[in-house]
Amino acid sequence: MLKPLLASLLTLSVAAPASAATLDANQAQARDIFSHLIAFKTEIGQGQVPVMAKYLADQFRAAGFPDSDIHIIPHGETVAMVVRYRGDGSGGKPIGLMAHMDVVTAKPEDWQRDPFTLVEENGYFYGRGTEDIKSGVTVLAANFIRLKKEHFVPTRDLVIIYTGDEETSQDTMEDLVKNHRDLVDVEYALNTDAGGGELSESGKPLVFGVQTAEKAYASFELTTHNAGGHSSLPRKDNAIYELADALKKVQAYQFPVMWNDTTIASFKALGATTQGKLGEAMRAFAKDPHDEAAAAVLADEPSEVGKTRTTCVATLLRGGHADNALPQSATATINCRIFPGVAIDTVQKALQDQVGSKVEVKLVGKAIASDASPLRPDVMAAVTKAVHAIRPGVAITPIQESGATDGLYFRAVGIPTYGVNGMFMKTSDAFAHGLNERVPVKGFYDDLAYWHVLLTTVAGKSGTK
Predict the structure, then answer these.
(1) Among the residues of 185-310, which ranges form H helices?
(2) Please, what are the domains in the chain?
(3) Which of 182, 193, 328, 370 has a CB 3.0–4.6 Å from the CB of 228, allowing a cystine?
């Protein structure tokens, strides 16, 4: 019994160093940072984002970044962090580099592995935040450290912008834009939290998307009111029935079809590789966005409808106060993803027009709208060079995402923002926000190399110290 056990332990002890030995110094350091970051429980309410920011600050200081270029900005229980890599200024305004330090809550009892321990298994890194988006935090930090070691002098400042509550309120990003604009006043930003490469289920690289537009997030409450009364004395007007009628009107309503340079280019590229009726609709819409039949096909596909119009859908419902009383009020929450360039007020008015004056329509919380970023040739060329360094020949296309990131805040104040995550993944491997979140090990190290090429390309190389 003992000999097989010792043999097994010996095999394990040899296997781990052998795997680590295949990594170069930069990869090994990135993996170490990644492991530390996953261990921080940066969920809302845990107070761990400031602790993680301190760890990162220590890494930057050890690499030679002065305290004057490392800023931690407190905001409630969380923080934002801004780190500046000084250039010689010959290339113009700084470039921003974005990621967020917080993660969605993970319940360890539901996971197959500890969500706050980086586990490498079967070609994947598992852990909360591996995909969204501590991998992005890691590759930016690791590349700053590497470039310092290489004595790289950029032609312009590079500014890392780490936020602390992207998954919840996004207050730290709003605070940076409003109250610390001097720290984040960049010409444009590159966001690790959007875009990326798609692999087929066999592992073949299909396409790389550069996110140049994203939809605004806004929730509205629809509320009906009534005097109520005893349930044994029903009346024709009823708050719940009236709300139900209003919801059916919202369900039936379709916002106007819309498009921009990004969505047209995206449908053209994706249509070339998408089979069947959906691929035909993509190609037809790219050729003529007035094609109603093509728009109708896209509207029936959940993954595509958001690229052609504003969407609003009922997500929450409450009403009444007792089972033997007529309801005095009923409320439904309608969540909208608003097409770039459309004002929040315009959507609210459209909802109000549909449900009528007897139903109150109120914005819940805050909402921010933004336009699509221009398709800058210099950015697209740099991204293409970086992608082809890890995946030669892959097609590059701009994309518009139906979700929302901190990039909204930059676009809203006129700072073009581009989602350029360098990770290539299969659709079936996407578990962000879900159980057993993971990324491919190869994808992580490729992402690290990709960002090195991208940063040295966009900032140029003016010399060495």
Answers:
(1) 239-252, 261-271, 276-287, 292-299, 302-305
(2) 23-194+405-458 (3.40.630.10), 257-308 (no CATH)
(3) 328
Q: Whole-model pTM above 0.70?
A: yes
State the pLDDT at residue 403: 80
Given a contact cutoff of 8 angstroms between Cβ atoms, the answer to whether 140 and 451 are in contact is yes
Number of neighbouring beta carbons within 10 Å of residue 379 = 22
Bridge partners of 167, per DSSP, are none
Preceding omega of 73 cis (within 30 degrees of 0): no
What residue type is 18 in one-letter code? A
Tokens 């959906």, located at residue: 278
List, in sequence order, every residue forming a beta bridge with 120; answer none if it has no partner. 125
Amino acid 402: pLDDT: 84
What single string gives the DSSP state of each residue in 103-148?
Answer: -----GGGSSS-TTS-EEETTEEESTTTTTTHHHHHHHHHHHHHHH
SS3 at position 428: helix
Q: What is the pLDDT of residues 274-283, one digit of tens each?
A: 899 999 999 9
Query: Alpha-carbon torsion 223, 229, 231, 234, what sign?
Result: negative
Q: Give the dihedral sign, CA 65/67/69/71.
A: positive
Only one residue has tokens 């896209």, namely 298
